[in-house]
Specification:
Blueprint: H1 2-15, H2 18-23, H3 26-42, E1 50-52, H4 55-66, E2 70-72, H5 74-90, E3 103-107, H6 113-125, E4 130-136, H7 139-147, E5 155-158, H8 161-168
Parallel strand pairs: 1-4, 3-4
Antiparallel strand pairs: 2-5, 3-5
Helix pairs in contact: 1-3, 4-7
């Protein structure tokens, strides 16, 4: 079991964006991610890591939206990922093999089981570049954090690697200095 967890952590850490790997942050983020996903499963939930909507994550969500790196809703996320997949298949000859997380699906915690099944199918369909997390907030609090003004959201897709790096780096507190910025 310990070796299995270590293998999972190593695989996830290796799939993180390069900026997080190079900074040494991918390991701690992956370890925390796997522990949270297992805890969610043990509690009977979907096997996705759950993170509290703390002030740092709230600020991160608002900033990625402000940078226009958010696709709102599960259907819009699926359409965006399908469009990207078509472009990626044309460029497959120049792409390196292996998984690299460059998109992040962020979900509220109040969806119906069908909603989470749809989200998991979307992640599985684009597993080579998409990962997902659940924020411990209902659609009202989640939407307010991302869009402000009392707006609701149950799912968003961070559609650029810089936004993914920005948010992933805020999931686990670091005593290693300022947040990572990609180049």
């Amino acid at each position: 079991m310990v070796n299995e967890k270590n293998d999972e952590v190593a695989a996830l850490a290796a799939a993180m964006p390069r900026a997080l790997i190079e900074s040494g942050r991918s390991g701690p983020i992956a370890e925390d991610w796997i522990a949270r996903a297992r805890a969610a499963t043990a509690d009977g939930g979907v096997e996705l890591p759950r993170y509290p909507l703390d002030p740092g994550l709230r600020d991160g969500l608002f900033e990625v939206r402000r940078a226009r790196r958010v696709v709102r809703g599960l259907e819009a996320a699926a359409e965006a990922l399908d469009r990207e997949a078509a472009g990626l298949s044309r460029a497959a000859a120049t792409r390196s093999a292996g998984r690299r997380i460059s998109r992040l699906l962020v979900l509220s915690n109040d969806g119906a089981p069908r909603f989470y099944r749809q989200a998991m199918r979307l992640v599985e369909q684009h597993v080579e570049r998409v990962a997902a997390i659940v924020i411990d907030a209902d659609e009202a609090d989640f939407g307010d954090a991302v869009f402000g003004g009392g707006r609701r959201a149950r799912a968003i897709l961070l559609d650029h690697k810089d936004a993914v790096i920005y948010l992933l780096d805020r999931l686990v507190p670091s005593d290693q200095g300022p947040p990572v910025h990609s180049s």
